[in-house]
């Protein structure tokens, strides 16, 4: 059984089954999903292995070309080496409670006695990941630069990435819903029981109370909306994956006004791409979801013109009715009448005798009806004359 599981993984795009579970979660997200339910499922995945959740998210939604299967496998191995290094650090470096209390007091922060063990553990993470020891801050980093073997190269990351690593270390010992994040202008920090932790420099802080304090699950939406690392080569992300990315951010973020524009833009991009490939139903569907009614009307008109040229009058009329263009609907009707008239005229063009014409009296009757609908008096007179003769 284990061999079969290994064989399945070997031929799949996944390093392990947890990647498959994370991908299934991301793929199943819709913007209309229940917020609490999505957050609960995401929290379970983050608690189990936040590193894999974040790495797979970067692969799927950031488009980094380096995140091949073998590279991700190494990243996970290096993470285990990093954890082992941290555990060795904990054995040697005991918490200096007086120093920690002094640092909190210096920032006018209250030491939470009931959660002393947790604060102490966070302080140990701060000491281990302090800049200049194992970690170096760089702007707009990919997660790859942070997940390195600590004996080979310094860990490099931005605020989002280093906060994610803090949260991962915390998840190894305590439940993640203890933690929150605080959003500052162009920045994010970790938050615990009224204490801000500035992970980029490894210190306690007390930022403005007016800043947004959000559930820890929103670290994922923050990472989703973060800029890609300009130093890394990226591949084009499909418009559908961009939509899925925006839907995920929208589904898990309580800051709906912040992510709604991203979702709207993603819907519009998908709709424009669909319209370019003549997939008008998809274009109209996503313009409607984006509430972009002017482009929705353009898409419906273009669809109507497309199907009119293709001779599919039923579909041309269907889309024209969505625009309410009565004159264009009349033009479609005339085009259909003209096509049918020409077809019948071709059918009777080979008739040479009056006897043969009498056998097609109903056809000439239909031609008269169509000529009248077309408003072509010459055709009407011609068909009437033929009907009189037979």
What does the model show?
The strands form two sheets. Strands 6-5-4-3-7 form a five-stranded antiparallel beta sheet, with helices on one face. Strands 1-2 form a two-stranded parallel sheet. The protein is α+β, with helices and mostly antiparallel strands. The radius of gyration is 33 Å and the shape is elongated. It has three domains: 2-225, no CATH class; 255-320, no CATH class; 328-389, no CATH class. The protein starts with a helix and ends with a helix. The protein has helices spanning 2-10, 17-28, 35-61, 69-92, 97-106, 116-128, 159-171, 218-225, 239-252, 256-276, 280-289, 293-309, 313-323, 326-348, 354-358, 361-374, 377-389; strands at 135-137, 155-157, 180-184, 187-192, 195-198, 203-205, 212-215.
